[in-house]
Fold this sequence. Notes:
- The complex is a heterotetramer, with 2 copies of chain A (391 residues) and 2 copies of chain C (383 residues).
- Chain A is an alpha+beta fold and 391 residues long.
- Chain A contains 12 helices and 10 strands.
- Chain A folds into 3 domains: 5-87, no CATH class; 122-232, Butyryl-CoA Dehydrogenase, subunit A, domain 2; 247-385, Butyryl-CoA Dehydrogenase, subunit A, domain 3 (Up-down Bundle).
- Chain A has helices at 5-21, 24-31, 38-51, 69-82, 89-102, 105-117, 232-246, 250-266, 278-306, 317-337, 358-364, 375-386; strands at 122-125, 141-144, 150-157, 167-173, 184-190, 196-201, 210-220, 225-226, 268-269, 272-273.
- In chain A, a hairpin with a 5-residue loop joins strand 2 (141-144) and strand 3 (150-157).
- In chain A, helix 1 runs parallel beside helix 4, helix 4 runs parallel beside helix 8 (250-266) and helix 10 packs antiparallel against helix 11.
- Chain C has 3 domains: 7-120, Acyl-CoA dehydrogenase/oxidase, N-terminal domain (Butyryl-Coa Dehydrogenase, subunit A, domain 1), CATH 1.10.540.10; 123-227, Butyryl-CoA Dehydrogenase, subunit A, domain 2, CATH 2.40.110.10; 230-382, Butyryl-CoA Dehydrogenase, subunit A, domain 3 (Up-down Bundle), CATH 1.20.140.
- The longest helix of chain C is centred in the middle third of the chain and has 37 residues, at 229-265.
- Chain C contains 11 helices and 10 strands.
- Chain C has 383 residues and is of the alpha+beta class.
Amino acid sequence: xxxxxxxxxxxxxxxxxxxxxMPEHLRAKAEVDAAFAHADVMEWHRILAAKGWAAPHxxxxxxxxxxxxTRRFIFNEELELAGAPPLSPFGLNMVGPLLIQFAxxxxxxxxxxxxLAGEEVWCQGYSEPNAGSDLxxxxxxADTAADGGFVLNGQKTWTTYAxxxxxxxxxxxxDPNVKKQQGISFLLCDMRTPGVTVKPFLTTGGTPAFCExxxxxxSVPRENLVGELNQGxxxxxxxxxxxxxxxxxxxxxxxxxxxTKRIARDKLVDGRPLLEDPTFRAKIARxxxxxxxxxxxxxxxxxxxxxxxxxGAESSxxxxxxxxxxxxxxxxxxxxMGHDSLSWFNRDGVVSAREQSVASSFNYIRAATxxxxxxxxxxxxxxxxxxxxxx
Amino acid sequence: xxxxxxxxxxxxxxxxxxxxxMPEHLRAKAEVDAAFAHADVMEWHRILAAKGWAAPHxxxxxxxxxxxxTRRFIFNEELELAGAPPLSPFGLNMVGPLLIQFAxxxxxxxxxxxxLAGEEVWCQGYSEPNAGSDLxxxxxxADTAADGGFVLNGQKTWTTYAxxxxxxxxxxxxDPNVKKQQGISFLLCDMRTPGVTVKPFLTTGGTPAFCExxxxxxSVPRENLVGELNQGxxxxxxxxxxxxxxxxxxxxxxxxxxxTKRIARDKLVDGRPLLEDPTFRAKIARxxxxxxxxxxxxxxxxxxxxxxxxxGAESSxxxxxxxxxxxxxxxxxxxxMGHDSLSWFNRDGVVSAREQSVASSFNYIRAATxxxxxxxxxxxxxxxxxxxxxx
Amino acid sequence: xxxxxxxxxxxxxxxxxxxxxxDSPVERFRRLRGTELGWERATWKQMGELGWLGVSFxxxxxxxxxxxxxxxxxxxxxxxxxxxxPFLSSVVLAGTPLAAAGTPEQHERFLAPLIAGDTxxxxxxxxxxxxxxxxxxxxxxxxxxxAWRLTGRKRWVLDGHGADHLLVSARxxxxxxxxxxxxxxxxxxxxxxxxxxxxxxxxGHKAALVELDGVEVDATRLVGPEGGGAAxxxxxxxxxxxxxCAEGAGLLARALDxxxxxxxxxxxxxxxxxxxxxxxxxxxxxxxxxxLCKSAALLAMIKVSxxxxxxxxxxxSAAKAQLARGGAFVVxxxxxxxxxxxxxxxxxxxxxxxxxxVLAALFGDFEHHVARYASLPSFDAHV
Amino acid sequence: xxxxxxxxxxxxxxxxxxxxxxDSPVERFRRLRGTELGWERATWKQMGELGWLGVSFxxxxxxxxxxxxxxxxxxxxxxxxxxxxPFLSSVVLAGTPLAAAGTPEQHERFLAPLIAGDTxxxxxxxxxxxxxxxxxxxxxxxxxxxAWRLTGRKRWVLDGHGADHLLVSARxxxxxxxxxxxxxxxxxxxxxxxxxxxxxxxxGHKAALVELDGVEVDATRLVGPEGGGAAxxxxxxxxxxxxxCAEGAGLLARALDxxxxxxxxxxxxxxxxxxxxxxxxxxxxxxxxxxLCKSAALLAMIKVSxxxxxxxxxxxSAAKAQLARGGAFVVxxxxxxxxxxxxxxxxxxxxxxxxxxVLAALFGDFEHHVARYASLPSFDAHV
Lengths: 391, 391, 383, 383
């Protein structure tokens, strides 16, 4: 729990660099917790990439920083405290590590540098209308073509930010005649290939985050098959495990609590800041205490990783409780806003800049307990694999 | 929601009668919410019986009062407000109504008057060590004897207050060769028959409420079979439904909240009553609000019954939420007591008389969500029969 | 004790139900939320003709005199399909103070056309600093001869963008948050000096920001006694809160139904997901909260007309707190159990989620009503 | 960042674990709770000989100087099987202020025999009106020449019935609740004027009511500066709270294990009840709370020695609140999932339920620690 002098110095270095490197217009948005546009995110991605800090967790030979786990943790904390735009996870955190682990050399060289540089944007093609929690029952067909390549037909859904993506990594059925987990392959598909249609649709947050993506006779060359044919489920499962620690969202929650306090500080009720109300303070404290306990779980996970240990049982609760806390944070923000919580995408100034996107996020954050393996599925997994309860 | 003038006058009559009829030593206990002994309960039972008010809900021909549902409701509210000892439910509310519905004339004449008068105390023999939630798998054998009577062998558990009981009503297996629900009969057994052994044991509340009861070659005459042979499950199910509305415990909860407020009123923290603390008031209010909503469900159920309607869907939540609220009330009482909540059966005066039994009840009340069909079983039932969700 | 509906009430419920089913299913709301007004004047007129808008006003004020329960029953049905017409905002929130405190002439001029469905009324009482305190009014009304001149800013005037008249709270005396000195005035929305800006609300409804810049009204526009508006506003807010509970009860019951249907229809792992015990028990927990919300709302609908202010406040605060907390559980779990589609704008459940959130926030939120409940004399009764 | 245990710490944990397994399983507690003392002096002596009682005291005070984490690790293991010896009350709660503020002579006289397991110490600080406020002290200490004379009543002196020495808070100056003016004195339990009454606690532990009637102590019995006892008490209470969290973490982890075992072994409807999804998910919810309690407790164990009082209070209050709320969920569900046998005194789970309740109530309950957490400067950091 105490940092070495080197780590303290590192924190200083990171903080100063962020302060210097973050462009004024991004800083202005961060200052009031405004929502970042896709272009903002990519701009910041390229700034980090230029510094060599876009993917600290990647191996050095692929452009990682070689930092120890504590440094990576400090780096994330500082980004969070500065309110920097969170980078898109699909390339850096999802397909990237998977490629590093399972792809061949050509694939690594073709894809990793552009992910790192923020030159190619990725999205994820897993879920289908009838394959959500029961992902293994997916039906998107990848038939083998004469040239050994694949022809895709079918539909993916919840392909978040597909409208911006150059590439999609997807699970497709390459053998319909075996047990459902066994006939699945992991493919990379250029979104600009003829036959790919993307239809963004609104989330309940009123933002076009989700897409449906159709594939009609879409050609995917054989070289875009990752790993072995029909082994895609294995790779995906490895990735899902990785995603779990990703979505604890301790940073988002901490940022949202701070934002809530700032709104409460500025919200004068008959001349007195709402933040001084003991009832509110206690309500916020109750959530913050849970978050602190969860943050300690993250610390322990990070420390164990630092020592080369596999994540312990405690890490499995990160997605579960982390997403519940994210939601509780936005509940609080809405409550603090009072009547202003009603505001929905009105012009600047109707509510304060800091409040502008709260209602949207409050709605969208309901997805956190659903995506990346719903919390019910997480509980099934923990019951079975950690508690060892009978099937 | 408004009472007729007749109902208002009735309330006045009941209130005055209780005030006059309740002996001083019972009133003194009620005043400080002290626990009532079995003898206290039976004394009060006989006073009510002498007035003809022991079983208002029974048909007039069996000693009921003929009151409409509203009057019965008012009567209960006044008993609750006076803190009168709650009568034992096993005779009056459980086996009594069942006998009225299913027994033959001889049985009615033999048993009902003594239940009413408080001359014979009853207990319930349903659960067994391996038949709890899955009650139908009970194994207590009732073999047919040469004279047509039965011979009981086996064990019942959770036979609450069996140590005081003259009679037990029980479910026994009379045919082991059919589907488990079908070979069960409903028998009445004299607890003084040779071969019956009762062993009381302590609850976590430190009180000897529970018993285990063994039957070793216990003779039960044929005349003590209620209804038809092997039809006992049907009768028991009817009774379980009745028990559900009984255990909502709105009265207990209201009384416990009042008690909590009184403790908080008397608990001076540096000269100021804890009841004035806004945080406590809000905490109590949150539970009281839920209780008020539940009370309204009771009102609606009562009103529907008044009009001769079957209990609606809403009545099914009474046991579920009612028992959760009972527990929440004791949580509050413990919190208010602070350090004094530690006290466990110490001499009078270590804590105030009103606080004396709180910790015991706080522990024992955990049973409320378990007994009378655990809340999990209730949820299974509601999911299936009310929400119509698939098996 | 009798909670059976009267023949009149039963008929009313059936009529509204058949209207919502045929003429205003959720798709209608979905379509209208994108329009400028958000609702339709023709439908409003139709509601007036059917007698719904005046159903709870006393006959002396031109209403049907069926009591507030009748309005609650209408709202419960409207809530079930998210009917967008401004019944809660216009009839209950703004109409109640006018009916209760208005003169016969004011009833004739402002309430009668509302009851007929010819006009809409809005209550302009929220200010930037006021939160849930009806006496926190900084808008000022100063005398200008026999007339009054109003200056100030109001926020979140529900359905104010489509209103013909605004009932405005303004300070005619007293200091900042004093209960004495608040007065109510009817202002024409089209009057000089009134600036209305339409704003969008989370739930697809609309509201207005209102600027009053020396708006002049004559003495006939003062509703209730000069300086005695705070009590009238409290009455209005309690009626609106009870109405929100009624609408909420209808909304929540439908959200539960939709969830139940989804659980039976959606298949994963080769079975309807409604066969999974953990989801079944969740659905039961939702059912419990819905029943409690319904019961608490009914009590509030009955008691809101109680001559004892304490009885009124007790029942309304209990119901509103129950709507906020129990209802939040219901819509959150409804969303969760719908899975991915539950968080898309394409599915209706999100509309129910949003409307619940707004109903829970308006007219005093959870903490406000819990604190008020705990401050009533009844809380210390028998202690 | 490094949460690995040192070799010393690992050895300590293993030693305590093997002791609890072999020499003090739950049955031992069950047997001893019915005895007058509730624990055994021979075992206490054994613990002293094993070096556990001084593990966290500084070497300057005769301890092993391993830091508070070591004491926490011992407590976690003792909590798992409900070992009844007064480690928390005597070593942590009463020992901490003596170690922190005592003179070398006082260490020698009062701490050394405690560390050796020859004596037990108890802290007498609770009074009828004091609740969680260490400065609320009405017991008075007045000067009598070079000595002090103590008069007052103390309640719920944990394990005071078996203590050889009492550390008593008494007011030497200041008014009612002033922080200045509280002093600490060591009193012999057997001294004239000291009346101890043994009382039973819910969790099977014992405490004492203490009456001090002009008890005379000389100046060598004053611990810490005259009038400066409140800060020392706060330090003691925070250490005890952190210790309660550690003991609680061990207790909760075991309660979860017992529940898991029961779910796998108990059969109903022809299957282990642990195969029912609703119960599985409940067990997972318990698991989550246990992990959070463990993590929060570890943080408190580390930070309680932080030179910054604010850091200490923040971590301790967070952990104590988590123990109270999260832990309550765990023991309540553990009871519920055990069904009928869970509410009998014959089954161990009820013992865990009770001990948790007491640990949650002592040294500041949920509301106290939430309010304190919210009042710290860190709560407003960066805002």
